[in-house]
Structures are given as C-alpha cells and as structure tokens.
Amino acid sequence: MPTVLIVAGTQVTTSDLHLLFHRAFEAVGWRSVFVSHDSHLPPGEQVLLQSGLAGSRLHGALFDRRLRRVAREVRPELVLINGSNWYLGPDIVRHLQSRHGCQVVLNEQHLQVFQPHQAACLPLYDHVFAQDGGLVALLRASSPVRGASLLGPACDPREHRPLALTPEEQAEYGADVCYLGWAYPHRIELFEALDGVDMKLWGLGWDASEKLRPFFRPEPVFGLKKTKIYNATRVNVNVQSTHYQLDGVTCRPFEVAACGGFCLAEPRRDLQRFFRIGDEMVVFEDAADLKARIAYYLAHEEERREIAARARARVLAEHTYEHRVRQVLQVLRLD
After folding, report:
1. pLDDT over 70 (residue 29)
2. pLDDT (tens digit, 9 = 90+) per residue, 96-129?
3. Beta strand pairing status for 3-8 and 78-83?
4. Is 272 exposed, middle or buried (0-12, 13-18, 19+ CB in 10 A)?
5. Euclidean distance between CA atoms 139 and 128, whole angstroms
6. Can you tell me the distance from the alpha carbon of 30 to that of 136, in angstroms, rounded to the nearest whole number?
7. 3-state helix, strand, coil in the chain (%, to 5)
8. Is a pLDDT exceeding 80 seen at residue 10?
9. The dihedral of CA 144, 146, 147, 151: what is its sign?
10. Structural domains of the chain, ranges and CATH numbers in brackets
C-alpha cells in the first residue's frame, strides 16, 4: 500500500482540512500519516512554540529532525504539505526527494508562497496545487515552479450531510441567517448592515462589534457541530477573506451544499468554475443586495430548497475530497 505523509497544522479549529484529506487518501487505497507542526508536539518543539520561537533556527532543526525520522519509518511515495509551508526549508525538501525518492508537493490554501523560505522552495516542489485560480495563474506566469494546478475546495459527504435535528438542536443552532468564520473588519461592516435579520455569528472576534455582540456565539465550531449549524440555518452566507484569496473561494459553499443547505456567496471567479451561478449557487454584490436576497429567499422556500438540492447534487458528483485526491494522484502520475 503506497503511503502519503501529510505535513499540516492539526489544531482543532473551524477547518479540519487535514483530516478530510487523510480520510480521502485512505478511501482511495493509500496509507496516510500525519506530521503536525502545531499540536501533539515533542516537548522541545512545544516549549519553543509556546515561547513564541516557532520558526527559529532551533525550532527548525527540531522539526526537521522529527520529519526526517518519520519519513525513514514510513517511507512515503508522496509528501503533501497541506495548508501552507510554514516550516520546511529547501534542504529538507531536497532531502526527502533524494533520500526517499518521493514526490514533495505543496497544497497552498492561502497566499503565503512568496514568503522568504517558502519562495525558496517553489522551484523544488514536484508540483504546486492551490485553492485559488488567481494564484495558479500567477505561479505559472512569474514563478519557477515545475507545475501548478487549481485544486478546488471540497466536501466530505460522511461529515457534511443532511441531518434530522431535534427541536432542541434546531433552537440551539438554527437561525434565518448564519456566518461561520473570523470577524474581519469588512465582514463586521457587512453584517452590521443586516438590521432586523435573525442571525447567528460563529467563529472569532464578532464581540468587537457592540451591534453584533448579541448574535455572536463565542464557542468552538468543528466537525458534527458545524454540520448541525449548516443544517439548522435557512440562509448560510459565504464572505471571502481579502487577505487569503484572489479569485478563490473557501470550502464553506461546498460544505453547506453537501449538508443540503442554501448558500448566498460573494461573487468570485473560481465559484463560477464549480457551480452554475443562479441555478446552483446565488451570489450577492453588496450589503444592500445581500439583505434583499435574504428577504427574497426566506420568502420563497421552495425555490431556495430547489437551488440547494442542485448544489448538493453537483458537489457529490464532482467536488468531494476523494475527487481532489484522485486529481492530485493523476497529475503526479501516481494513480
């Protein structure tokens, strides 16, 4: 059985991307092994991380030593750096390729590839996958990469699925509108404009707004709880980050769709690659348009449900993590 070594952050957050890729690799017949850079750490690395010395020369040496040891033990055919490459320098990338004959690839979820040590690794990766079509175009045009491909967001039907909620769960998690994510200033401004809307806000930082504080639920959200929220909400809103995407879109619309939920999303070029706009996914232009569309779709439940059903059919047919893993293996000729 071939082995993939996944290097990723594994702290419990609103994203369990590492686990979903792990499941998908195992579903297609690969053994999947983690090396985490932010949790379940040996004592030395833990002390350095807690002391604010992550990325120091000593921390890098300890992390490299651990990664080399795990690679010797599992002998991977593929090393997948998932999320962003926070700690691997050029020397360890070359070592993994030469010592173990494996391919080393980056799956970039943000826009971090031009940071100093990350930029130095770009010519060395066997391939760069990115969750943003704009970044892929930029890498192909101006960076010395061996290859770059769009690897879109996805869902896991085992985790993101329709659920029959109890009345208590519906009351706890449900609302006409919800958003799950960080409270960046532009997002706060957007949701402050939704006067009179029944909503719940989950994630971090929403209590910075006195106006939004009553709608904020300051508690961790991941796994089954996130699925329940998407099921219990009539209109799930997707707002992109201005820091981490050019043309890209997060996994939120895909997960909502797999749950059978309805999503109103900011328009992004990549969204049109994955969904038929207006038929499977509805977009909004600004706060006034968002408020008007929320009112419309709350009043037209059957239309809302039909759009959600078409979106769910699309993600199950084309946009699961197994689809993404098979794409990776096909590009690398490991299928």
Report:
1. yes
2. 999 999 999 999 988 888 888 889 999 999 999 9
3. parallel
4. middle
5. 9
6. 27
7. 45, 20, 35
8. no
9. negative
10. 3-154+320-331 (3.40.50.2000), 167-318 (3.40.50.2000)
